[in-house]
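User: Please write out a complete single-protein record containing the residue sequence and its fold in token form, without commentary.

AI:
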Amino acid sequence: MSNFLELVDLAAERLGGSVLYATDDFFASKDNLLHADEAVFIAGKYTDRGKWMDGWESRRKRVSGHDWAIVRLGLPGILRGVVVDTAHFKGNYPQACAIEGASIAGHPDIDALTSDAVRWTEILPRSELKGDSKNRFSISSRERFTHLKLHIYPDGGVARLRVHGEVLPDLRWMGPRARPQLVDLAAAEHGALVVACNDMFFGSRHNLVMPGRGINMGDGWETKRSRRPGPDWVVLRLAAEGAIERAVLETTHFKGNSPESASIEVAHMAPGAPDPDGASDASWVPLLPRTKLQPHTAHVFEEELAEQKGAGMPATHVRMRIWPDGGVSRLRLYGEVTKHGRELAGMYALRAMPEPELESAMRACCGSTAWVSAMTHERSFASLADLQERAADVWNSLAPADWDEAFRAHPRIGETKAAAAQSRVAASWSAGEQAKVSQASEATLAELRAVNADYEAKFGRIYIVCATGKTAEEMLAIARERMGSDPETELRRAAAEQLAITNLRLEKLVLR
């Protein structure tokens, strides 16, 4: 999308955005930065610290350095552009600004966020600002961020900060692949985007997919009085490819201006293809036929969908049409993410990981530093199969010392702690891979401990086997068989087992 202002404001307060810290906000609070309303100026209004200003304003700096603030994005994602709005700051705006980003798991406190442990990535170099202006900056970023650091040079006031981009949430929203479940494929917080509409005179199309219920008539998509038969239309790009089973169409708060009727259609577009045209009937397959609506009502459609051609169809886009015009508060589309949709989302998330996060993810799959370095350097994988093929090529090109390093990142069969440090994710995967060992008898476990020791004494490394799905007895039998191998043959066998483990872990990483 060429105009980044058409994308979601990832830092919006309504989505959970917050200014967590500022070096100084003497004249005006840092919390004003993300307010949804446009900044205002009230002549003659003063506080005990000076002129009241609707924004973040630091005092005049009389020492070296500059001021900065840390913003937690309401929705993590890939930035496409920012607006640093200096509205009403005319003689007190910063000379320049810069922005850095970081991808941080969990909910770190201020001490953690301001420590040297956080690796910040420059996403907007130092750039000149104009006073009393919406300073717009396009950002060419390919990485996903959760937090931003806004630098202002050297001090001054910024009224509002808008951060537009593509939502890229933690993929756990799709639910575990082993237990498919209905999820809202049209939720902004899951990555859905309303890409186009023919009109939104009174209310933004983006409101349709915002969290929660509409708070008033202004919190919805509303078209002007068209004075024609209709319909008006809107096109949504779903958060992931999925099959829709239930739709909830809300006209909440629209009492004298709700549509007379509505329909829903689905389309499937190949990855990278343009969004389908909402003005053309090509590509669209019926999911909900034109159906009469009621004012101020949450309409739930399920049986109505099952009777249409679009039922069960893997969809990437949805078109909603309303007759002849009017307002809709929210549109929820519940369905299961397809396996292909899960893979596309997982690969996109993998490519968008900042380097520290990608490095950690790769190390959880294989403990070889050389392998991790090679895999972190490449981000162009289109599919899981491409990723696994490259993983095999890199692995097979490594030296025995690199293989041994990877072997040491695994616990012995029947144990939980590896010789080398393991991440929490890797430790969890190891435990899952050896899940059937816990079902073994004490006698079998004792034999496993003995064969582990014999193997290490003969070959100088731990016994490694792809344990997924295998019982303790099966792994014991494999170990005894491999004890008869010569060192070179056994090294190759161990390397093959490690590659099998790596491939399974890459699959877990992508498909969750």
Observations:
- The longest strand covers residues 67-85.
